[in-house]
Amino acid sequence: MSPTDHTLLTATADGDGDAFAAFFRRHEAAVTRFAVRRCASADEVADAISDTFLVALRRASAFDPGHGDARPWLLGIAQRVIGGQRRSRLRRARLIGRAAALPAYEPDEAERVEAAIDAARRLDDLRPRIDALPRRDRDVLELVALADLEPHEAAIALGISANAARLRLARARRRLGDGMTEVSYAG
Question: What is the pLDDT, as a whole number, of residue 180?
Fold first, then answer.
């Protein structure tokens, strides 16, 4: 006489792998038939079967022996698992749809963004040298190189003459050397 589902699940809860293997063999075909009618692909069926039995393994001690056959309990687990898969697929499809609707860079825009990223990395290398500049020169340099202002616009922002701004900018660039000519976010 073969052991009951309750006996197999009790032994499974106690760590008996052979008991769970026997339980799996007994009910795998029923879960497969159930999943085949509800899933869209072989991969989904395989996921449903494995997830169903994984839940059953974790909840083996929760099986009510008054139900006798574990198939209804197991198919209830399968139904919840497949419902979760379906909700996950729908969420994924919505996310993909939203991502497709996001604006994308045109090739020339992408090149400008990549150039800006490269410039920011070069700027990080120059940061100690920029910080060592006198404050007056550094302010003009940052407004021109980082805020993308023209020298005469930086002059307005700082309340100085356009000539003073150009002189301070030239002095800052000369002190930084060649590295600063490559650093600009202008696109």
Answer: 52
